[in-house]
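Methods — Computational structure assignment.
A single polypeptide chain was analysed. Its primary sequence is given first, followed by the predicted tertiary structure written as structure tokens.
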Amino acid sequence: MPIIEAVPNISEGRRTEVLKALAHAVNRIPDVFLLDQSADPSHNRCVLTIVGTADPLMDALLGIYDVASKDIDLRTHRGVHPRLGIVDVVPFIPVHDASMTDCVELARRLGRAVAARFAVPVFLYGEAATRPDRRALEVIRRGQFEGLTKKMANAVWRPDFGPAIPHPSAGASVVGAREPLIAFNVNLETDDIDAARAIARTIRERDGGLSGVKALGVRLEHRGIVQVSINLTDYETTPLHRVFGAVEREATRRGIAIVDTEIVGLVPRAAMATVTSDVLRLDLFSQNQVLEARLQSLAGPLSYQFGGAK
């Protein structure tokens, strides 16, 4: 029974009633498990981690799009995290007896269904990309929702599925397949956004920094500080402690202390095998954020696959 993980990122991190409705869209589907829901008001974004087999996952994700289409309007949405759509990105990741090919097929199936049901343009990325210049999420998302109409006027940016113009309130969606990544944020004891952006430029791969690291400097208005927001796409090549060390060195060089760090969503057990949460200065980290631990805690049919409760 191929088990696949989906990590939809939705452009809402403030309204409790919408966050509850998104969770309910998953929880009402049998044999789909919501492993984690993380939300941040400054990013104005939430990240769900769900697992299941292909058909139930499709039902849960279409339910998420349905809630988002009714309750989120990007014309009034504001947040520090880049976004292209109400359901900004949905990656599929193989978990158990699933291949990357399975995930690619599911990504294309979801993209086709979303375009047909919600009239939302869908771009495929990662391993599901249909052209090499769309493999990187940040390339597709460049210009964000506000620049989407102009971007899509260029025939180069015709979507893989759906209309050739953005949906007025929902924008577009990016769906794909990838290996696991770690969303790791480092919070700095300063409100100097230029410093956070400079540190992000220094450590990220595209500017000559660490392999597999993507990073942005953002302001956390609700805390009065700034953050280096990191996606680590290859934790085997560049382990977490090395990423943290690079940020710490750059911050120290500028006379800035680290307040704390956080992992958004779940982290593979192997990524924490050689480092402790204390070393990483992780705030409120628990074993419930380890993917394998959450899988083993499942009740119901999927638990048999992971040695959890029967």
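Note: The longest helix spans residues 100-118.
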